[in-house]
Design a protein that fits this description.
Elements: H1 2-51, H2 58-75, H3 83-94, H4 100-120, H5 125-171, H6 176-186, H7 191-203, H8 208-218, H9 222-237, H10 241-290, H11 292-300, H12 302-326
Helix pairs in contact: 1-12, 2-9, 3-5, 4-5, 5-6, 5-10, 6-7, 7-8, 8-9, 9-10, 10-11, 10-12, 11-12
């Protein structure tokens, strides 16, 4: 009778987990996949409407096509690279100036440290190799990615001021190269560093397209892409560069204000998500101190293992859905 009750309990728990998984997958689809599909359909509809317009404004259409061609060229620059080139590019974007040999040595040290930590916690021998590989290959990439993110964020926060310096300098009669030289001298890194690279490229005789291409490899932000496209189109078509860069500065500031507004509106939801997500681990830690035997049933009994796995799966789905709901790309 007890065996039948236990089997029945397993069936009920399995059914509950299946229902929760289906609900989580449906919520993920509703939050992430469905809006993206609607956006693609909307963009396709807009493109078809633009294609059906008359050619009365042919000059403007030619300019738009030229801008679109430049955007495609900048996006298609990411060619197939070897893993060593990818490592060097990651270090370049993160602002880390170390040799490739030192980086590989650091990866090996992190892998050995991860293996030693896993041995100290009593991990079985089968799991030591995956942990070492994660520590040697995954952890350095995560560190470089985080450093590149912080560097790009600081660059974006100061880039609008740099564009304003160029606009004021051009309107006062200074050449563009002298305005960039002022930014390279007066602004802190990474803005000053990137403009110093541009000045050095001009002194070496590189073309503007090559200089901007290398700059976009180091700083692949949307704001810098706008700046590169404006300079290249301006070099080909002419016009008032000060007014064009002034409009670009207004767009960059509007994007920054919108991004800050979104972060402020989402801060309450982020703090709530952090509190709710940390509560189970906080309660488990307190129970492990007050009554360890009560909590160890989750790790020693089969039913406890199933409950623990189901809870972790459901929490992971909830965290993924909440992160998609409160993280906006502006």
């Amino acid at each position: 009778m007890q065996t039948m009750d236990g089997n029945m309990l397993f069936v009920v728990l399995g059914a509950i987990l299946m229902v929760l998984t289906i609900v989580g997958v449906g919520a993920t689809y509703a939050v992430t996949i469905r809006p993206q599909m609607k956006l693609k359909k909307r963009l396709a509809a807009i493109g078809s409407l633009e294609g059906a317009r008359t050619t009365s404004n042919a000059a403007e259409n030619r300019r738009q096509r030229r801008i679109q061609e430049k955007v495609k060229k900048l996006r298609n620059r990411a060619k197939s690279q070897s893993w060593t080139d990818q490592i060097l590019l990651s270090m370049l974007r993160a602002g880390v100036q170390v040799s490739k040999t030192r980086y590989l040595v650091g990866c090996a040290v992190m892998g050995l440290a991860s293996a030693l930590v896993s041995l100290m916690f009593g991990l079985p021998g089968v799991g030591i190799l995956p942990v070492a590989l994660i520590g040697a290959l995954g952890l350095p990439k995560l560190i470089l990615k985080y450093m590149a993110y912080k560097r790009q964020k600081k660059f974006t926060s100061d880039f609008a001021d740099a564009v304003d310096v160029v606009v004021r300098g051009i309107r006062s009669g200074l050449p563009v190269s002298e305005c960039m030289n002022i930014i390279a001298r007066e602004f802190d890194d990474p803005v000053g560093e990137e403009f110093r690279m541009i000045i050095e490229g001009e002194r070496l005789g590189l073309t503007l397209e090559e200089i901007l291409r290398r700059g976009l490899e180091r700083m692949p932000t949307s704001e810098f892409k706008f700046f590169a496209i404006v300079l290249q189109i301006q070099r080909q078509t002419g016009g008032n560069l000060a007014d064009t860069l002034g409009n670009l500065s207004g767009v960059l500031r509007a994007r920054k204000n919108m991004r800050d507004k979104v972060q402020a509106l989402a801060s309450e939801a982020k703090s709530s998500a952090g509190i709710i997500g940390s509560l189970p681990f906080f309660v488990a830690g307190m129970l492990s101190i007050l009554n360890p035997d009560y909590l160890m049933l989750l790790f020693t009994e089969d039913l406890g293992n199933y409950m623990l796995i189901g809870g972790l799966m459901w929490m992971s789905i909830g965290i993924a859905v909440m992160s998609k709901m409160i993280n906006f790309q502006v």
